[in-house]
Every structure is written in structure tokens, then in C-alpha cells.
Amino acid sequence: MSPEAIHIGSGKVREIYALPDDTLALVASDRISTFDVVLPTPIPDKGKVLTGLSSFWFTRTRQIVPNHLLGLREDGRTMICQKLEMLPIECVVRGYLAGSGWSDYQQTGAVCGHVLPGGLEQSAQLPEPIFTPATKAAEGHDENIDEQQAAALCGAARFAAAKEASLELYRYASAHAETRGIILADTKFELGVAPDGSIVLADEALTPDSSRFWPAESFEVGRPQPSFDKQFVRDWCEQTGWNKEPPGPELPADVVGGTRARYVEAFELLTEIPFDQYLARPEVVL
Question: Is the peptide bond prior to 252 cis by the omega test (within 30 degrees of 0)?
């Protein structure tokens, strides 16, 4: 990072720097988190997968909603971005019943206020995609909330615009993924507000960290699905008996290698660009 950059924050995965021209540099590390806890073992090249895949999607979805990407640096893990006022919610869209949505459905028959048909099985496709916001927890775990709670946090007009943009983004990405043999089960977007008041897509988009990607060829309702995302790590963590509180467990070499392979495969399938080509010339995704 250049000497004039000022470090202003750290996320679970990213380091954030303020640049002299009033833009931001977002640097994606190789850290991985599960259950909102950063694990001690990095996944090689993970940050480059996230940056490259996000940049690929940002470039192709501007017609749906503007985004914060201004440029991509040669290291393949740094995006130059517009500053935004971020909305205080996670914008989650679900097309299939999995994860916390499946858990909520089993208990209540609903997900974030959406009452669903009875008798749905795990991994079932929903009648239509649903918007299921969540809080952004500074500490601990994000919590699912309903649309009324989310609108109260954001303001009605901003919430409505964020919901519409999120659903449109999901539909676009889901259709693209389907042509590449991938089911986009659900995904999480971060949206902010530009100085002119418009809603803008930010952070990362449609990556293995923020989405559930399932191979279509092995999809079967009624069970968990194999995945191209960090569910592989979540599953391993669940089997250790870890209580999901810091510190997280060290990952063994086979889990590290298997996770990297899944991230790279997702990148290559979705972009149709060899990952080595991206490492050599990151601008190929733009």
C-alpha cells in the first residue's frame, strides 16, 4: 500500500485504507471466517478470488444498480472504491432453503417474516426468491430480522430501493450461474448510499464468502448440498465440537487445500477465465 494511504479499518476479511483523493482501497486478505469468527489459518489466494470475482460481477451488473468499484490494482486483491454511507443491514436474498433459513423454517414455518408453504424439505427451491435482511453485529453473530425492522433501521425509501436492487441482482446472477452449471442458493449484498442519495452496491458481490454455490449436477432436495463456498469449512468446524466462539480452530492442510480448490473452481466456472490468467493480469475480469 502506498505511503499516503491511511489505514482506517479492518473487517473479518478486508483491510480498508483512505486515499488522498477521497477514495478507499479495500484489500482482501486470505483470512477466512466461519460463524462470524476469523479462523487462525489463512486460505492461500482466497483474497484474490474474492476481489477478482467481485470485480467481474461489478462490471456486469452496473445496469441493475451502480457500484463502488473505481479500479483494480495489479496485486489482484485491492479494489479502489467510492466512499459511501453504508446501510446498517445485510441484504440477503434466498432462492433455496438452506442455512439459517432452513433452521428458521423448521422452527416457525417462516423466514424473516416470509411465511412459506408447509412441507418443504432442506435445500428446496422456494416459490420465488425472498429478501431476508439481517443485522450487522459489531460483535457476535448477525441476526435475521423482518422487513419492517429493516425498514425502520434504513428508512422506508432506502430500504425499498435496497430490496429491489438485491432481488434484481440475485435474479441476474442466478441466471448466469445456471448457464455455468451452478445453483446460486442464496447470497448477501452490502449496499450504501452515494452523496446524491442513490443506492450503490459495495464491499464484495457474489463470491464464495457471501454466497452458497451448489453444483447443479449433484443437486438433490432433502439433504445438504456439496458446495463451492466456505460451507466446506463450516462443516469441518461443526464436526470438531467447537462452540463457535473465539478463538476458532486451526484448519488442517487438507481442509485448507480443499477450500482453496473450491474457491478457485467457483471463480473459473463463473468467469470462464483461468485463475492463473487472472493472477497474471487482474484486469481480464473487467
Answer: no
Q: Are 35 and 142 in contact (CB under 8 A)?
A: no
Report helix, strand or coil for 152: helix
- Closest to 267 measured CA to CA, from 31, 29, 50, 33: 50
Other beta carbons within 10 Å of 152: 11
Check: CB of residue 47 under 8 Å from CB of residue 77: yes
Backbone CA torsion sign across 189, 192, 197, 198: negative
238-286 residue pLDDT tens: 999 999 999 999 999 999 999 999 999 999 999 999 999 999 999 999 9
3-state helix, strand and coil shares in percent for the chain, rounded to the nearest 5: 35, 25, 40
Query: How many H helices and E strands in the chain?
Result: 7, 16
Where residue 230 falls among pLDDT bands split at 50, 70, 90?
confident
157 dihedral zone (left: phi>0; alpha: psi -120 to 50; beta):
alpha
pLDDT tens by residue, 158-175: 999 999 999 999 999 999
What is the distance in angstroms between the CA of the first residue and the CA of the last residue of the chain?
22
- How wide is the angle at C-alpha 271 spanned by C-alphas 266 and 273, nearest 5°? 100
* Residues shown for the chain: 286
Whether the CB-CB separation of 38 and 12 falls below 8 Å is answered with yes
Strand partners, 69: 81
Residue 141 has pLDDT above 70, yes or no: no
